[in-house]
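User: Predict the complex with heme C.
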Amino acid sequence: MTTQHNSKYSSYGRSGGRLAPFVLGILFTIIVAIAGGWAYLKYGRPPVAAADPAFPFEAQIVHVPLGARIDKELQKAPFGTSEDVFEAGAKTYATSCASCHGTPGHDSPYGKWMYPQAPQLFKKHIRGNVVGVSDDEAGETFWKIKNGIRLTGMPAYQHLYSEAQLWDVALLLKNADQPMPDPVAHLLQQESTAPVSVPSPVSPK
Ligand code: HEC
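Assistant: Here is the predicted structure with heme C placed in the model:
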């Protein structure tokens, strides 16, 4: 028993001699990395303006954790689509979203000058035939509208609209590639002329 203890102790003592420079090396590396990072932020002119080009891997850094979070919290729509749902969605969209995300045939004047750009949700992508987010699950769009997307200018609407109202908009956007009944198309077109009215906050449940 005692011998075992001794041999353990002595082997620890022997490696301790090599451990100290190793630990110092790690500490030094950490200090250099922190100092280097700070110097880059202060003097390296990293992109801060909306008009600056992207950081290397910026899109991946943001989209990987965002996608993982949405996958975890993905919900299914509690009701299906109908003209009423589209009309309600179009009213909300025209009031709160169109200024950044545009309407059919009408782009937001400043959406593309944001960083990241606010995608035009009734327009075909530059590459391919997909309109807006109509290829995404309604639950993914619902999550983005409800929670917003950090550091992008995309607001969280959970305190402004009820969950049902958010689903109305998510289902409307899921069907942005479909022809809409006249009243819905008409409501969407109202954006450019309608005065912006802020919806009254939804009281927390
Ligand atoms: C102040 C401008 C602004 C307003 C108002 C706004 N958004 Fe956004 N939204 C953005 C920006 C910028 C992005 C891009 C975020 C990104 O690239 O990650 C975005 C992203 C999105 C996305 C994800 C697009 C994609 O390709 O995945 C959806 C869906 C969306 N917004 C819906 C809405 C809806 C619905 C409303 C209204 C209830 C709204 N937004 C209001 C700026 C805005």
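The mean pLDDT is 89.
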